[in-house]
Amino acid sequence: MNADQIQANIEKAKKGDQVAFTFLLDFFWNEVYGFMLKRTENEADTEDIVIETFAKAFDKIGTYNPDYAFNTWLIAIAKNVHIDMLRKKKSSLFIEINDVNDQQAYYVADSTPTVEDRLIKEQNLSSLLNCIRQLKPQYQEVIQLRYFQELSYQEIADQLGEPLNNVKIKLLRAKKLLSEIIRKK
After folding, report:
1. Of 54, 73, 60, which Cα lies nearest the Cα of 172?
2. Which tens digit of pLDDT belongs to each residue from 142-177?
3. Is the dihedral of CA 19, 181, 140, 115 positive or negative?
4. Interior CA angle at 159 toward 45 and 171, to 5°?
5. Does the keyword Cell wall biogenesis/degradation apply (predicted)?
6. N- to C-terminal Cα distance for the chain?
7. 74-82 long-range contacts, Cβ below 8 Å, gap at least 24?
8. Structurally, how many domains does the chain consist of?
9. Which among 114, 125, 137, 150 is placed 20 to 30 Å from 12, CA to CA?
10. Tell me, what DSSP letter sits at residue 111?
11. 183 vs 16, 61, 128, 177, CA distance in Å?
12. Residues 12 and 83 in one domain
């Protein structure tokens, strides 16, 4: 594969060509995945980071500067996604405790969900399910398998009898469409 062919696919992707997106995902997936796996040493985190990377890259492909290598641009996005993930994990894991906080811990309210909390949660789930039902059946299925049955990407691919990259693209597209439906609501 030469640079001109890659650039041609990037230009097609900028115009919304799904085949070009698939080509770019297939061509660069292993490179970005391998790079991130060395950094995270965790396959699940790496997979999430790489999917998020391609989602962001495809959303912002119009901003890509062809003066730089596409893989370098993807790696930079992946690094930023990884940093964001680490910040979220760090902020959720560490809370600085001092004497005042320690004393306040004795007065923490019961966090057991109230009847109202459960009702709101059920209504939110119902609303989400209604949004999911607006997707095409193929997208509903991958959302169901990934987020409700909590299958890995490989398990979904095996169950559907589809290549792993197709499942990743389908899930990426399903999440994007679902996001648009929720935003319109």
Report:
1. 54
2. 989 988 888 888 999 999 998 888 888 888 888 888
3. positive
4. 50
5. no
6. 43
7. 74/28, 74/31, 74/32, 75/31, 75/32, 75/35, 77/53, 78/32, 78/35, 78/36, 78/49, 78/50, 78/53, 79/39, 81/49, 81/52, 81/53, 81/56, 82/36, 82/39, 82/40, 82/49
8. 2
9. 137
10. -
11. 21, 22, 12, 10
12. yes
Angstrom distance (rounded) from CA 46 to CA 86: 12
H/E stretch holding 132: helix 115-133
Would you state the structure tokens that stand for residue 55, as one six-digit string? 């989602």
Rounded Cα distance, 82 and 65, in Å: 22
- Work out the pLDDT band at 120, boundaries 50, 70, 90: confident
Render the burial of 147-176: b for 16+ CB within 10 Å, e for the rest: eeeebebeebbeeeeeeeebbbbbbbbbbe
Q: 156: domain range?
A: 113-184
What is the token pair recorded at 4?
Answer: 């001109």
